[in-house]
Each structure stands twice: as structure tokens, then as C-alpha cells.
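Hi U.,

Before I forget, here's the chain from the pilot set. I'm dumping it here mostly so it's searchable later in email.
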Amino acid sequence: MITSKVIYKGDLRTESTHLQSGSVIVTDAPKDNHGKGEAFSPTDMVANSLATCMFSIMGIKAKQMDLDISESTADVTKIMQAEPRKISEIIVAIEMVGVADDKSRTILERAAMTCPVFLSLHPDIKKTVTFNWK
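Structure:
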């Protein structure tokens, strides 16, 4: 089954439609690589996908444990290298809410580090992940 349809809109911009839901994502090349920087770049999406995947896996585990981690947030930083141009590091700083005990925190943190995006990223990409529990 096809996941998405991507249309190149010109001017280094794409429009991706998720076929199951109809949700649309626009990407734009960054200003430092000939683009307008008016939307997520493709590499921004890779970095952002790490955080969203980690939350998805933690959310599944939290639901199984009858925990609510709603309103937790993540700040994502993508670091590029010049030659060859690629992502060299993704930094994810996670602010967690809703979990009080150490055992549950450990279970959720370990779950996050096994998300499919984390495991799919090339080993040369440094992944720096921190958890701050409120």
C-alpha cells in the first residue's frame, strides 16, 4: 500500500499527502541550501521524526502502564555537516510530565530509545537524547 504522494511544487518545495488521512506536509529547502526556509526542510523532518517517534512509543507504553504523559514536549536540534552535506547530530531534549516513580521513568526512557526511527538512523548520526522529568 502506498503511504504518501509527493509533488514537487518547484522552487525547491514539495507537498506530501498522507494517503490514509489526507494530511499534508510542505517542505522547503533551507536558506543555507538555496531555499526559502519557509517550511520544514527534508532534514528537519528527519530530526523531528525522531522526537515524534519517541513520543509515540512512550505513549504506547504509558497507555499500557495507565500513565498520562500528555503535554510532554521535546526541543529538537539538527546539526548538519558540510562535506558531504548530511545530518551529523540530532539533539532531542525531552521535558516529561505526569510520571512520578523512577521505575516508570526508566521503562519509558528505554522504550523511547527503541523507537523505529532511532533504530533506523545511520549509526554515523550522533543521537543525543536527554530527559527532564517535571
